[in-house]
Write a structure and sequence with these properties.
TIM Barrel, eight-stranded parallel beta barrel, 279 residues, alpha/beta
Length: 279
């Protein structure tokens, strides 16, 4: 067996939120993800019937998925894990929906979630994300001091905005980001700048930021290959979010086609992974 990259599309990112109210229905979204060549989807594991419908479609088409959860207490994770045990998942991605003032307040929560996931035999990652436990880069680094073996999903865009990194990235800022990258067992993908959480991938004026993120993701693949087992998978979730993540004009419509950008991102990430295999 060999290490494998799985590229997923976020179902949240399939929301359009257009002024005319036109949305794709769930089955149409799933068919689009399948036909575009994604390996699966990122799925919020909350409502039973929704999870059942989505995972049944993905399973029927030999696709996989990432389970996403937003617990506020240790016990909040229990029904999510029950869903994972019933419907399956490559892994469970947790955004801790709490904002403790101190690292010491975080430790019982993380250890409690880890214990529940281990008892269930479910792989779990903690995601870097604003307005969550990991909202701040410095705080998260202190969290890693306390729990050095914490497995993370890196949504690196939040720290670029949260810390308003200058371009070019300074060696000091890059070193802090490298420490986050070294903990990553998966990525959520979007490109940010110091002022915007989500840039259009194709605009010429954004290409220097695209290059920054591609380099960080490349390094993430490299560090993971060295420590992961021979048959493990690394997941990359294309997560170009709807407005107000996506920029809109005065008419309320987006400035670019996010679905088309997701397809471009998918192909770029596959190429980045393959290039690493050859080096």
């Amino acid at each position: 067996m060999t290490q494998k990259l799985l590229i997923y599309q976020s179902l949240w990112a399939m929301e359009r939120r257009r002024p005319d109210g036109h949305e794709w229905d769930l089955q149409e979204k799933l068919r689009m993800i399948r036909d575009a060549g994604f390996d699966g989807a990122g799925v919020r594991f909350a409502e039973h019937d929704y999870v059942s419908e989505v995972t049944q479609f993905l399973r029927d088409h030999d696709m996989t998925w990432q389970a996403q959860a937003y617990p506020q207490t240790i016990d909040d994770l229990k029904p999510i894990l029950e869903h994972v045990l019933k419907f399956g998942a490559d892994h469970l991605n947790v955004q801790p929906d709490v904002r403790p003032y101190t690292v010491q307040e975080c430790i019982p929560l993380i250890m409690g979630w880890r214990e529940l996931a281990a008892q269930a035999g479910v792989r779990m990652h903690i995601e870097t994300h604003r307005n969550r436990m990991t909202t701040d880069l410095f705080f998260t680094l202190h969290l890693l001091d306390a729990i050095p073996d914490l497995r993370m999903t890196g949504d690196l865009s939040h720290y670029v905005v949260g810390r308003e990194f200058w371009y070019p990235i300074s060696p000091e800022d890059d070193a802090m980001m490298q420490r986050i990258i070294d903990q990553c067992w998966g990525f959520h993908g979007r490109v940010a700048s110091r002022e915007q959480i989500q840039l259009q991938l194709s605009f010429p004026q954004h290409q220097h930021w695209v290059a920054v993120f591609m380099d960080w993701w490349r390094r993430g693949f490299e560090q993971w290959r060295k420590k992961a087992g021979a048959d493990e998978t690394f997941t990359f979730l294309c997560e170009l979010g709807p407005p107000e993540y996506a920029m809109t004009g005065a008419d309320g419509y987006e400035l670019s086609d996010r679905w088309e950008e997701s397809l471009v991102m998918k192909d770029q990430i596959r190429a980045l992974w393959q290039a690493g295999l050859k080096s």
